[in-house]
């Protein structure tokens, strides 16, 4: 969603299990930003927009302040 920003609470550590092309189980542990990105991508693949997970949507002024202070 372009130009829409929000705060989403996500786990700081996740363990993801999947299978490779040969059917072997693969396990990945991710922390902090990588965990956040993986959870975001999983939501996208399941058709869940981040706005459904957002604790709140940020105003334009809050977004501007974030990027100015970054």
Oligomer: single chain
- The CATH topology is Peptide Deformylase
Strand portion: 25-35%
* N-to-C CA distance: 21 Å
CATH architecture: Alpha-Beta Complex
Whole-number average pLDDT? Answer: 93
Q: Tell how many strands the DSSP assignment holds.
A: 4
- Percent of residues in helices comes to 40-55%
- Element-level helix/strand string: EEEHHEH
| Overall form | elongated
Poorly predicted regions = none
Give a brief outline of the structure.
The protein has 70 residues and is an alpha+beta fold. It is built from 3 helices and 4 strands, in the order βββααβα.
Explain how this protein is built:
The protein has 70 residues and is an alpha+beta fold. The protein has a single domain (6-69), classed as Peptide Deformylase (Alpha-Beta Complex), CATH 3.90.45. It has helices at residues 32-45, 50-53, 60-69; strands spanning 6-8, 13-19, 25-31, 54-57. The chain is elongated. The two termini are 21 Å apart. The model has no long low-confidence stretch (mean pLDDT 93).
Key traits:
70 residues, alpha+beta, Peptide Deformylase, two-stranded antiparallel ribbon, two-stranded antiparallel sheet, 3 helices, 4 strands, EC 3.5.1.88, Peptide deformylase, Peptide_deformylase, Peptide_deformylase_sf, hydrolase
Topology of helices and strands:
Blueprint: E1 6-8, E2 13-19, E3 25-31, H1 32-45, H2 50-53, E4 54-57, H3 60-69
Antiparallel strand pairs: 1-4, 2-3
